[in-house]
Design a protein that fits this description.
Layout lengths: L3 H56 L17 E7 L9 H18 L3 E7 L1 H9 L6 E3 L8 H16 L5 E11 L2 E10 L5 H12 L13 H76 L1
Amino acid sequence: MASQRDVKNRISSIKNIEKITRAMEMVAAARLRRAEQRIQALRPYASAIRRMTRQAAEAAENIPNLPVLEEHENVNTVGLLLVTGDRGLAGAFNSQIIRAGMRAAAEHEEQGRSLQWYASGRRGVSTLRFRKRDPAGAYVGFTDRPQYANAREIAEDLITAYVDDEVDQVEIFYNGYVSPLTQTVRRETLLPLQHATVLEEEEDEGEGRGGHRALVEYEPDPEEILKRLVPDYVEISIYRALLESTASEHGARMTAMRNASENAGELIEDLTLEMNRARQAEITQEIMEVVAGAEALA
């Protein structure tokens, strides 16, 4: 059995850890509230951009001769964008994105396709490099509070890669925010526009509400509007993914730190009980020694 002093030192160490995890939980909760507000403010705008892009594509008689709108004949190379965080201590937040990306990579490789990786967040970048899959684009340092400029930078790299025929399809993986306790891994196709997952989802949602569509008159023509909307669609889709991922990370970290604090409290209770047993054993030993000494003198 450990000595009373050893157990007391362990209790002191765990109490210090508990203070840290409680503080991290409160910080994550405060950041989560701000992230939720940003998501709520962005979602209507993002949905409107997606809906406008889909409607303009449907209304356009001829798809504009724009490289980003041209669907490649064969999908030989796929660009995979992993949206992770810069820091850990958030449960399975980062690992589940990486696992989803690796599963998708295995699917594409089975079909004979090559891959080009992109990663947002230090965790995703470092994991890809550790696995000898150096990302063509690495974006770090902003996952706690992403700005639209960060999404624009990523979008420009992905659009350039698509236009230059470096990739024939672009997919994005990120944690969609549902609640502080729930984050769902989402896999969406960004490019080509004809197979964009988000546009299909928006269409399904519209049909679910009754399928009624307003008649729209375009000025200028839909082809010209589509040229302007496509870059915005890619940027806003990435920006939404970044915000969803940020909120998910704060929620996951808050939950993980709360669980860690509760586990620390339980461990402190167990160690306190062990310390009391050790103290009782020491007192019993001292009494036995006193009694033995008294008997020897008698």
